[in-house]
Automatic annotation (TrEMBL):
Needed co-factor(s): pyridoxal 5'-phosphate
Record protein name field: cysteine desulfurase
Lineage, highest ranks first: Bacteria, Bacillati, Actinomycetota, Actinomycetes, Geodermatophilales
CDD domains to which the protein is assigned, alphabetical: SufS_like
Keywords attached to this entry: Pyridoxal phosphate, Transferase
PANTHER family from the UniProt entry: CYSTEINE DESULFURASE, CYSTEINE DESULFURASE 1, CHLOROPLASTIC
Keyword Transferase: yes
Signal sequence bounds: none
The reaction(s) this protein catalyses: (sulfur carrier)-H + L-cysteine = (sulfur carrier)-SH + L-alanine
Family: Belongs to the class-V pyridoxal-phosphate-dependent aminotransferase family. Csd subfamily.
Annotated GO MF terms: cysteine desulfurase activity; pyridoxal phosphate binding
Annotated Aminotransferase class V domain residues: 42-423
Top-level division of the source organism's lineage: Bacteria
Source species: Geodermatophilus amargosae
Amino acid sequence: MTQTVSRPAAGAQKPPLPLDVEAIRADFPILTRTVRDGKRLVYLDSGATSQKPRSVLDAERDFYENHNAAPHRGAHQLAEEATGLYEGARARIAEFISAAVEEVVFTRNTTDAINTVAYALSNAATAKEPSFRRYAVGQGDEIVVTEMEHHANLVPWQQLCERTGATLRWLGLTDDGRLDLSDLGTVVNERTRLVAVTQQSNILGTINPLEPIVARAREVGALVLVDGAQSVPHQPVDVATLGADFLVFSGHKMLGPTGVGVLWGRYEVLDALPPFMTGGSMIEVVRMEGSTFMPPPQRFEAGVPMTAQVVGLGAAVDYLQALGMDRVQAHEEALTGYALEQLQAIPGVTVIGPPDTVARGGAISFTVEGIHPHDVGQVLDDLGIAVRVGHHCAWPVVRRYGVPATTRATFYVHTGYDDVDTLVEGVRAAQRFFGVTPEEATA
Ligand code: PMP
């Protein structure tokens, strides 16, 4: 059990923030509204979904107002323009993660991207086309995940194992919220076909050391899928350095629209996988007797795609690139250090996850002794502070640390020290409201 003892902060450290919070806030229309009877919106739930800057909203509106058509179809000017915008966004998103354009597949979100890979691996076993059977998963094979995964990177692998007779294995967690790699050498072994691991935990904030995991997977010839849902929006991520086979992430968590995500795959691997969804746009030749499929990425983009959303995600990437991902990361690190210090100085508050900023991102989960997280969330909401409460779609994690749920604050480019101060005041207000004063909490 992680029961990091709350201790007083040794003086509030507020290093200058790398991003101009006031200027950035002006770009987000939603941040001008008030909530709960005129209170300023303190949005600390970007980990669930991020707010959208005006440039992203404008890009979507402009698409519908001026260019709307189905891409890759139609012999008319609008179709040509829609195709250009869709493929142009693909090129910018590919560049954002240093990938080749044909390695970027658009999906609905991270969940959809992971399911696309999981179904491709089980479909591979029965594929008629021999070149699609290379990565087939079957009886006797093993899939490795970690105890830290979001349900999106756990349940699809459980289901893959049920479909194929493969076995699911996992790496556990240490008491301070990190991956326990002590049995990496046995958990990842010659039977392992794929290792699926998150780069940054949505609940603990932990940034995982992927290098030893990728190196071990390579030794045994296993594929590696990295869940980048919480890393790609917050730090520079480059697929060449990552060394994995797949990287998946969601547009809506990185200032982009809902309904669009990315499956990046190494071309050689994508090219050897059968499709999951089939239908229009992904076929080469269709006859009543059977069909052949396009090469990646089209093989994995069946039907008319989420075109306006892709264009919006392109604008989100432009916005993040203009800020600079190094600065985005440094900004969140400064806020996280300050918030950890302030929260852990409140008697009765326990941070679930790494207690300092070493290899850690801006997702802070905590419990308040004597108050259920849902009640903490309600008091914070009354003060205009939006946080998430619950198991955060990572049920095994809260179980591992022996808590029913946590309160989670997550930061992004528009977050400032004032937001953190309001949160800290809100937690103290919750303690007062429930009659759990700091003194009582530590008694
Ligand atoms: N993985 C992680 C680490 C996440 O935080 C999330 C979203 N909370 C997901 C996967 C799933 O993302 P989506 O719901 O956008 O598919």
